[in-house]
């Protein structure tokens, strides 16, 4: 055994190196910080990130709501697992809820009743859990729309967009698995539908059905299996993806809306410590508090009204949770196309609107950033967000997408629409069959025109200022409205955007539209690019602004006539 | 690597108005007015001070309020425990959040600061160093000279997935032709099985059913099954019995002996995705599925008249036994329920069949 070296106590080598004492911090805190830093090296990590800047905007809270809802779901979900029994074994109910005493039901349903009636606070937590799930999917959806309409998915954030699409699709599966668990009449009907959906898949459908349900519907294993998917498999993947999503947000730094001093090369906002810690941390409690109040005051999924699952019963007006409504709608309005080839059945009436449509949505969402980049040829990094009006075609595509989704979603309630508005169910269904195709086209055209009008209005404001609302009468009897110049900050904000230009076909390409740099632009790509930029208003040039400023200086009250004369030059359409 | 903000030469185009720089910081009311600042301070503290009170209330309510007591309020019946726990707990949580946000917005310094942003890409030097180090590592691994290791490793890693996948082969019985025949392609209906009311379990006589009436029924032997098996069989065997005026409906020649004086019997399981069909339009003889609104004409062998279902409802051939009870003549002649790939759908009834 090595003999300890004999060192004198005052040897300098023994002195622990301590950072200079911080002013104002209590000794206890300082000591704890030193203790932690000696083991974790936190100071070097935090010195850069403690005051990391985050920009401020209400729309940046949407993603936060989704994140916090997920945390609420984890917390309330753990509570529910303490009592919930994921078993399809049949028992006779003898619990507190008198109306169902003596009824045969699964242990899953009985334990859900016990959670709702016997466990104190159980109903509250069940309802918070369900409401938080609604908030989770809803906020994620709106967050995604915000990202889309402001072009935040552009380079370098395409991968984070893909992670987001993954989160979105998984959250739908997670939600569906969750609401199937109580084994009430409504959720059992949902499972019955999924059984029909799975077995409709050509070639492998029956095999998939037998593997998932352990044989025929309903079997005795689907709820235990969905339970595992719901509380372990999908949440674990969600957690990993959320971690990656946030890590990339930190690495890329948050995008920001255009404004004075905001550039692609900087980020303007408040520091993480203390402002964002208080704001974002506080917002978690706000979201949680609201979710609890919703659970306390708004009934959701009252399974005791539906009763246990019975394959021979169904209620009129049965619908899935709202986020699956669009798939439900597609299933309802699909024409009854089915092939009977030899001794096989190809059930297009189920597989196309169910499996096909869901796949199409996620593939289109995932591919969009790459498609747009191919069309525009934009290879630059973007950190300043685009105002939706400044990219009319993208905005129009987004609104068309929302409209299409909305039409499918409404179709999911075609029976409710028919009964509430006293319409023929068949007429509603047939109308929707057309509307899912026509309404998006109308929405596209209208949105694009609105965006272009807004661009014109912006140009107008930059060149001629804002309307004062004062009508002046000139000595010779003419009336005009003077305009007040807008601030330089606003002028900058309205003119800072990058004005894209349509790609032109290079004659010496191979003709296959290879998107690689330097490989040339195919005529197809040029055509797509021309379509994308068609009708965009050229923003005012430096000279136009200078001239307009000069004009305004000279003729203060010469409002309306000047405006009419100038708007034409500002409204030139670039092709 | 700097951020490529726009294409070279277009900078003037991008910024016809030069960037005026960050706007000047405007002090808030709470910064300049001592009283307002103090008020904000008090508000934050008061909000936080209310939290312990609410927490104590929560605990008291948890133990004091019985879980079956109700409050009548706003024309609704509120579960007292659920609502009060939620109100106190929710308010406490909300107040913590509101206090923090209020603190950040009114008391913490609100000077915006700008931080430089760097391109997501690594610098050219970093890339060069990485490439050098990678080359060194690759050289060290010896893959350049002994290429087969790479291929063999790739193949091995790929194939190691096979045992993992095979492990799942027992997730369910394999739906081979023989298994399908004993599961999804048959029900427990058979010759001589009585049709019974699905609630009372009483056998049904032809004379019990009047024209226009619909009865939900099950095979009498359903209650021989229990638990999961009961549910599996019920999900296929559920039927509806309807009686219509034989002169007002179409009964094809091949099905003349499938009915008893206008009493017809159909599978209750929709051929679309399997919902139990329920809504009976007595006058038109149409049956509507409440899930996706497929509509079947029971006066015409169950053919689809509207909606997403593609196949007619399977009809169960019935007759009466010596005592006058309705009994099945056989199982369904085609599989009931939604379509599946291996289903032979040539024998389903189609409009125009005789």
CATH classification, class level of one domain in chain B: Mainly Beta
Number of strands of chain B: 13
Please, what is the oligomeric state?
A: heterodimer
Mean pLDDT of chain A: 90
The name CATH uses for the topology of one domain in chain B is: Rieske Iron-sulfur Protein
Please write the CATH class name of the largest domain in chain A: Mainly Alpha
Beta fraction of chain A = under 5%
Q: Give the largest interface pair and sizes.
A: A-B, 133 and 111 residues
**CA distance, first residue to last residue of chain A:** 86 Å
Q: What is the spatial order of strands in the main beta sheet of chain A?
A: 1-4
Q: Which structural category do the helix and sheet elements of chain B fall into?
A: alpha+beta
Q: And the CATH topology of the largest domain in chain A?
A: Cytochrome Bc1 Complex, Chain C
Q: What's the CATH H-level superfamily name of one domain in chain B? A: Rieske [2Fe-2S] iron-sulphur domain
Throw out a few tags for this protein.
heterodimer; A: 575 residues; mainly alpha; Cytochrome Bc1 Complex, Chain C; 3 domains; two-stranded antiparallel ribbon; 5% strand; disordered C terminus; B: 354 residues; alpha+beta; Rieske Iron-sulfur Protein; four-stranded antiparallel beta sheet; 34% helix; extended
């Amino acid at each position: 055994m090595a003999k300890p070296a004999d060192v004198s106590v005052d040897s300098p080598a023994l002195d622990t190196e301590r950072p200079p004492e911080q002013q104002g911090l209590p000794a206890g805190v300082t000591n704890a910080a030193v203790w932690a830093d000696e083991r974790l090296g936190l100071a070097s990590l935090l010195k850069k990130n403690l005051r990391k800047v985050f920009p401020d905007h209400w729309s940046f809270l949407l993603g936060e709501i989704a994140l916090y809802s997920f945390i609420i779901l984890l917390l309330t979900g753990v509570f529910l697992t303490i009592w919930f029994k994921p078993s399809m074994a049949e028992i006779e109910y003898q619990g507190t809820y008198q109306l169902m005493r003596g009824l045969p039901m699964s242990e899953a349903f009985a334990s859900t009743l016990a959670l709702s009636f016997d466990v104190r606070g159980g109903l509250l937590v069940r309802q918070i859990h369900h409401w938080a799930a609604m908030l989770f999917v809803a906020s994620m959806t709106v967050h995604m729309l915000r990202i889309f309409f402001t072009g935040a998915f552009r380079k370098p954030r395409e991968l984070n967009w893909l992670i987001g699409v993954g989160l979105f699709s998984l959250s739908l599966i997670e939600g569906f698995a969750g609401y199937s668990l109580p084994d009430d009449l409504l959720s059992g009907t949902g499972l019955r539908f999924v059984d029909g959906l799975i077995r409709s898949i050509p070639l492998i459908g029956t095999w998939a059905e037998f593997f998932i349900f352990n044989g025929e519907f309903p079997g005795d294993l689907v709820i235990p299996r969905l339970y595992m998917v719901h509380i372990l498999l999908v949440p674990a993947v969600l957690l990993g993806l959320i971690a990656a999503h946030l890590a990339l947000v930190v690495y890329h730094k948050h995008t920001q809306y255009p404004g004075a001093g905001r550039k692609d090369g900087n980020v303007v906002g408040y520091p993480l410590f203390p402002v964002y810690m208080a704001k974002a941390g506080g917002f978690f409690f706000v979201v949680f508090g609201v979710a609890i109040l919703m659970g306390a005051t708004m009934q959701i999924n009252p399974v005791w009204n539906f009763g246990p699952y019975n394959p021979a019963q169904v209620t009129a007006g049965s619908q899935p949770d709202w986020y699956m409504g669009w798939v439900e709608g597609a299933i309802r309005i699909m024409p009854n196309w089915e092939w009977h080839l030899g001794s096989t059945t190809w059930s297009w009436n189920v597989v196309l609107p169910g499996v096909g449509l869901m796949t199409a949505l996620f593939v289109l969402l995932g591919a969009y950033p790459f498609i747009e980049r191919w069309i525009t040829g934009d290879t630059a990094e973007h950190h300043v967000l685009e105002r939706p009006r400044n990219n009319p075609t993208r905005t129009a595509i987004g609104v068309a997408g929302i409209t299409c989704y909305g039409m499918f979603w409404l179709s999911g309630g075609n029976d409710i629409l028919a009964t509430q508005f006293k319409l023929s169910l068949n007429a509603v269904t047939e109308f929707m069959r057309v509307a899912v195709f026509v309404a998006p086209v109308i929405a596209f055209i209208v949105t694009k025109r609105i965006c272009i009008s807004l661009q014109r209005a912006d140009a107008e404001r930059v060149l001629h200022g804002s309307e004062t609302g004062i009508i002046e009468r000139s000595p010779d009897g003419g009336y005009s409205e003077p305009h007040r110049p807008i601030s330089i900050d606003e002028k900058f904000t309205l003119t800072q955007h990058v004005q894209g230009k349509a790609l032109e076909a290079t004659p010496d390409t191979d003709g296959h539209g290879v998107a690689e740099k330097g490989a040339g632009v195919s005529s197809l790509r040029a055509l797509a690019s021309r379509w994308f930029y068609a009708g965009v208003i050229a923003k005012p040039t430096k000279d136009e602004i200078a001239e307009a400023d000069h004009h305004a200086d000279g003729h203060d009250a010469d409002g309306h006539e000047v405006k009419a004369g100038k708007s034409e030059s500002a409204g030139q359409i670039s092709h | 690597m700097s951020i490529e903000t726009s294409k070279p030469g277009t900078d003037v185009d991008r910024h016809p108005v030069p960037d005026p720089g960050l706007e000047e910081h405007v002090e808030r009311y709470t910064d300049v007015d001592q009283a307002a600042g103090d008020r904000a301070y008090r508000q934050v503290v008061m909000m936080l001070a209310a939290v312990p009170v609410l927490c104590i209330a929560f605990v008291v309510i948890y133990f004091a309020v019985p879980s079956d007591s109700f409050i009548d309020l706003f024309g609704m019946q509120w579960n007292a425990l659920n609502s009060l726990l939620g109100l106190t707990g929710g308010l406490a949580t909300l107040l913590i959040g509101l206090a923090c946000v209020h603190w950040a917005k009114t008391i913490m310094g609100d000077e915006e600061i700008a931080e430089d942003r760097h391109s997501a890409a690594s610098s050219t030097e970093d890339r060069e160093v990485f490439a050098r180090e990678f080359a060194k590592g690759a050289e060290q691994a010896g893959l350049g000279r002994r290429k087969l290791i790479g291929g063999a490793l790739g193949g091995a890693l790929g194939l190691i997935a096979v045992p993992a996948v095979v492990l799942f082969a027992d997730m369910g019985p394999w739906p081979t032709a023989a298994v399908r025949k004993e599961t999804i392609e048959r029900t427990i209906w058979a010759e001589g099985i009585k049709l019974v009311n699905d609630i009372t379990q009483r056998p049904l006589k032809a004379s019990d059913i009047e024209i226009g009436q619909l009865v939900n029924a099950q095979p009498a032997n359903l209650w021989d099954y229990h638990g999961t098996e009961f549910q599996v069989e019920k999900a296929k065997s559920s039927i509806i019995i309807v009686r219509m005026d034989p002169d007002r409906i179409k009964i094809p020649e091949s099905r003349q002996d499938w009915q008893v004086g206008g009493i017809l019997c159909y599978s209750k399981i929709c051929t679309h995705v399997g919902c139990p069909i329920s809504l009976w339009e007595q006058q038109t003889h149409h049956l509507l599925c409440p899930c996706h609104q497929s509509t079947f004409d029971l006066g015409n062998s169950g053919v689809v008249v509207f909606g997403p279902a593609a196949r007619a409802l399977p009809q169960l051939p019935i007759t009466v036994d010596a005592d006058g009870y309705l009994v099945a003549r056989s199982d369904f002649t085609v599989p009931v329920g939604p379509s599946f790939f291996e289903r032979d759908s040539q024998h389903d009834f189609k409009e125009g069949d005789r």
